[in-house]
Amino acid sequence: MFAKRLLAGVGFVLLGAVASGTVAHAQIQPQTPEPTQISPADAPVVTPSVDADVVYELNSAQGDAHTQQRMRWQVSSLRQRLDPQNSDVFMITSWTDHTLTVVDTARKRASVMPVPGPQQITPPGQPAAAGTYARLGNSVVAGEQCTLWRTTDADGHPTDACYTPDGLLLQVAQQEQVTVRALSVNRTSQPDSVFAIPSGLKREAPAHP
Q: What InterPro entries has UniProt attached to this entry (predicted)?
């Protein structure tokens, strides 16, 4: 089951991201450096300013589950698609329409609901408009340079997130345990067809509105 873990104040999030296992090779150091406080104008870019195709490894804090999830993003339409590994279900988030559509291709059904959490996102390429951030340092994830930031999740728990300069989220950790980590990053144009809802699906009410 995919828990909707949202980072409070983070404009661009992985809706439905699983928090599944501790990653032994985490890039968070055993003793995280003291955070450096910043002004709001120096906050990280948290909404990607480029089209992207990213594969994530998702790990639980208990270490008893792990999976992968593919994320595709189209900056011109502010749409995100998530494809969980080995699943007939995918999710399309439209920040223009403020909707989350869950498509079950095996059952030929789709449900549409309001986007969970904040209804607005920071414009692509702009510093985060909400939340608090403190700079921890730099890291390399999936061959990409990123900056580690301390922020909080939707429940107020301290969370360390690593963002590239163009706003791609590469890693998330809590209590020095990595829960989300990018495995591959491709900045490639994403066509409209990636985000199209298949025709002929039966519309149904969301199971958990």
A: Haem_d1_sf
What CATH number has the domain bearing residue 174? Answer: 2.50.20.30
* Distance from the first to the final alpha carbon of the chain: 15
Is 142 within 8 Å of 183 (Cβ atoms)?
Answer: yes
Residue 23 in domain = no
Query: 139 lies in which domain range?
Result: 36-201
Q: Give me the residue label for tokens 């992968």.
A: 68
Tell me the C-alpha distance between 106 and 89, whole Å. 8
Q: For residues 95-134, b (16+ Cβ closer than 10 Å) or e, as one string?
A: beeeebbbbbeeeeebbbeebbebeebbebeebbbebebb
Render pLDDT for 162-185 as a digit per residue (tens, 0 to 9): 999 999 999 999 888 899 999 999
Residue 29 lies in a domain: no
**Model confidence at 29, in pLDDT bands (50, 70, 90)?**
very low
Q: Using an 8 Å Cβ cutoff, are 176 and 61 in contact?
A: no
pLDDT higher at 59 or 71:
71
102-125: pLDDT as tens digits: 999 999 999 999 988 776 788 999
Angle (CA) 117-119-121 rounded to 5° is: 100
Report the SS3 class of residue 142. coil
